[in-house]
Design goal:
Layout (H helix, E strand, L loop, with lengths): L1 H21 L15 H4 L1 E9 L7 E10 L5 E9 L7 E9 L7 E5 L6 E8 L5 E5 L6 E5 L6 H13 L8 E2 L7
Antiparallel strand pairs: 1-2, 1-8, 1-9, 2-3, 3-4, 4-5, 5-6, 6-7, 7-8
Length: about 180
């Protein structure tokens, strides 16, 4: 009986450690870039790597095309091919609204009214050649470039930046692209 009583604190400690291991510690909020020059950001962006959301699964040759609207919002066209680059290009359309007017790095993107998804510019090359768009839960990410391909070293640097923001880069998949789409 005495041995049993002395084991209780040890058992409680083991249970506590197991419970702590099952808990997820909230991650710090994603850090956005200091400033996005919106006119310079507009145009075509090829999706090079992503953690795809449900409607993006099996999409290839994906691109985002951004265009300023007269009302100050951003017209977004998501272009893609289903499963194979030779299939017909399809499009989805959304509206972006800049939520942080000081940095222009936090948007709300609406594909279907009334739902707006967070859109956070978490990385942007000084020459606007690459960008990374994050999602607060880190379940989604889009690594994009102005060209359909990136050097392996440039891609790895973007993955390292994503990892520094708390992303599991093993979940990020490369998107097949075709030069000159």
């Amino acid at each position: 009986m005495k041995n049993m009583k002395s084991m209780i604190p040890t058992c409680l400690l083991v249970v506590l450690l197991l419970l702590c291991g099952c808990m997820t510690i909230p991650k710090a909020p994603l850090r956005t870039v200091n400033h996005v020059d919106l006119p310079r950001f507009m145009g075509d962006w090829y999706v090079i790597g992503t953690i795809p959301w449900i409607v993006e699964k099996n999409n290839v040759g994906t691109m985002d095309l951004y265009k300023m609207r007269p009302d100050g919002r951003i017209g977004i066209t998501y272009a893609f091919h289903k499963k194979d680059l030779s299939t017909k290009r399809q499009e989805m359309h959304a509206i972006g609204t800049v939520l942080d007017k000081q940095s222009n790095a936090r948007w709300g993107v609406q594909f279907i009214w009334p739902f707006k998804a967070p859109y956070l510019v978490i990385d942007l090359a000084p020459d606007y050649s690459t960008t990374t768009i994050g999602y607060p839960s880190r379940d989604l990410i889009w690594i994009m470039a102005r060209t359909p391909t990136l050097s392996e070293s440039a891609y790895k640097a973007l993955l390292q930046n994503a990892a520094a923001q708390g992303y599991d880069t093993n979940r990020i998949v490369k998107v097949p692209q075709k030069p000159g789409l």
